[in-house]
């Protein structure tokens, strides 16, 4: 094992512990507030939001494969991750620029940030998967991307549950449902919306919308990139143990 791999395993272990932490009191309080607010939203609105997000993500999941590069030939983990970090940096700058433009455009243009940013996030995940050597032509790999997305943008309790679902993925993936409709889209959209609502609402405010949009988008892409790297490091570790 190389020195780089030893360092990565230490970072991975720390990340695993973070994913499995019990929710704090503040987590419980904020979660309770969000659930209370959600209870005031009519069921038809929840259903509409769920359907919208589901269709948006399905469109990206089944469209991005045509623009995603082929999986790389085997190289060292260090070489792969150097390229992954470059791609994350590119998408962070892209998301920041998009957030700044939509944030400066007022309320209506600010609303357009939601689907645009979602597409940028998912496209970055496709690229990261390919760079780690996983083919997104496989439905199960696309499902893994959705789990990574949930890990990055969920409350701590939901994060712990999702982490349990992807741990030992190499042995679990053969028993997954073959229909993406079986994915829990309602929880997905609520967790995602609740996670980013407060930060993104400020983007709709005149004058400060542009800088807020740029900074928030940059940080969201950073969080997603870090989560994805550790999720694929975990699979790299599992594969080594299975050999």
UniProtKB/TrEMBL annotation:
Domain of life: Bacteria
Pfam annotation, one family: EcsC
InterPro entries: EcsC (IPR024787)
UniProt name for this protein: EcsC family protein
């Amino acid at each position: 094992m190389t020195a780089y791999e030893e360092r990565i395993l230490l970072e991975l272990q720390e990340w695993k512990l973070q994913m499995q932490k019990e929710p704090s009191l503040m987590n419980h309080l904020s979660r309770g507030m969000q659930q209370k607010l959600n209870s005031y939203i009519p069921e038809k609105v929840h259903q509409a939001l769920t359907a919208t997000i589901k269709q948006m993500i399905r469109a990206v999941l089944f469209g991005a494969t045509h623009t995603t590069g082929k999986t790389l030939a085997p190289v060292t983990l260090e070489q792969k991750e150097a390229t992954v970090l470059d791609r994350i940096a590119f998408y962070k700058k892209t998301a920041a620029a998009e957030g700044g433009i939509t944030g400066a455009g007022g309320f209506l243009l600010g609303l357009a940030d939601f689907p645009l940013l979602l597409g940028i996030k998912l496209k970055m995940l496709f690229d990261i998967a390919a760079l780690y050597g996983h083919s997104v032509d496989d439905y199960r790999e696309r499902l893994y991307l959705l789990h990574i997305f949930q890990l990055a943008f969920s409350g701590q309790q939901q994060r712990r549950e999702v982490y349990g679902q992807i741990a030992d993925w190499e042995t679990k993936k053969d028993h997954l449902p073959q229909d993406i409709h079986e994915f829990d889209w309602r929880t997905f959209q609520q967790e995602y919306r609740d996670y980013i609502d407060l930060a993104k609402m400020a983007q709709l405010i005149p004058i400060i919308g542009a800088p807020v949009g740029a900074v928030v988008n940059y940080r969201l892409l950073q969080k997603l990139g870090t989560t994805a790297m550790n999720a694929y490091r975990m699979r790299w570790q599992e594969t080594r143990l299975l050999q």
